[in-house]
Amino acid sequence: MGIFSFTQEIAMDLGTANTIIISNGKVVVDEPSVVALDRRTNKMIAVGNKAKMMHEKTHDNIRTVRPLKDGVIADFDACEKMISGMMAMVNPGRRLFRPSLRMVIGVPSGSTDVELRAVHDSAERANGREVYLLFEPMAAAIGVGIDVELPEGNMIVDIGGGSTEIAVISLGGIVSNSSIRVAGDDLTTDIQEYMNRQHNVKVSERMAERIKIHVGAALPDLGENAPVDYIVHGPNRITALPMEVPVSYQEVAHCLDKTISKIEAAILNALENTPPELYADIVQNGIYLTGGGALLRGLDKRLNDKFNIPFQVAEDPLHSVAMGTGIALKNVDKFSFLF
């Protein structure tokens, strides 16, 4: 191997909302999946947090792009630039000689062959020499510490930004799964529409996301764990005059109910397709919730009451998929990859 030729191992959760990169067992990049581009030259101006700060605040010469939609690549060129920008964050001082990359990337289990190929090609163009793809529910299961090789059933519900992945795992493979393109982005849209309709106030996507973080809930009664009302500032939809509106978690829980019900239906569908022996294991072991959506207050209790099966939020739900891809990267001979 020459002095300027070396390989770096990278594990990546390429998410609709956030991209997480692990190198040497540590999270080295955890940034929003956003890239800012110059409209005239199409060159990248910023990526990650810097690009998100520009989102909904740009002038005509700059556009901000979220390259992934519903868990898959919607803008191939922007995604390639975003991955390259994220890779530059991993090695900030290395500008002249870029290392070849050995990568494991988590992808939605409902991805088509075309969508999988788009992720694979984007990674290769970003200097990926060896690129492996792993379904996100499998990566999440590995990340939360489940021994996926055992002959017993475990169920994962991974609620990301663009898709919700539900899978029953046994003997190192996915036995049954349900992947729906309903997730965190839909919850954000629900809040935007509710504020518009109920309070006559315009809120941006970023403001709706802040409301979700501060008072987002899946149950209208959280008892002692209830958050205080969140104050929203915005223009009146009709008069354009400034408004100040307190938003409670109870009304947010009400406006999110329909979307959460769709996730419940997908979980039920996966359970219906589960063999009886594995179903018994799942009832015994419980179901793990991962992804940003798992942080919605009261979601585990709501699902537990709905299905009479214990649901538990993973210790680090935001990083479960990334941690799982990192473990898989160290054991590429042990796991089944898509490429």
Gyration radius (Cα, Å) is 21 Å
CATH architecture of the largest domain: 2-Layer Sandwich
**Residue-averaged pLDDT:** 90
Q: Within the CATH hierarchy, at the fold level, what is the topology of the largest domain? A: Nucleotidyltransferase, domain 5
* Unreliable spans: 1-5
What's the number of extended β-strand segments?
A: 17
Task: Provide the domain count.
Answer: 3
**Count of separate DSSP helical elements:** 10
What is the CATH level 1 assignment of the largest domain?
Alpha Beta
The helix/strand order is: EEEEEHEEEHEHEHEEEHHEEHHEHEH
Q: Name the strands of the widest sheet in spatial order.
A: 3-2-1-9-10
Structural class, by secondary structure, is alpha/beta
List keywords for this structure.
Nucleotidyltransferase, domain 5, flat, 10 helices, 3 domains, five-stranded mixed sheet, alpha/beta, Actin, Chain A, domain 4
Short description:
The chain is α/β, with parallel strands linked by helices. It has helices at 49-54, 76-90, 113-125, 136-143, 184-199, 205-215, 249-272, 276-285, 299-307, 320-330; strands at 7-14, 18-23, 26-32, 35-38, 44-47, 62-65, 68-69, 72-73, 100-107, 128-135, 154-159, 164-170, 173-180, 230-235, 242-247, 287-290, 311-313. The protein has a five-stranded mixed β-sheet with strand order 3-2-1-9-10.
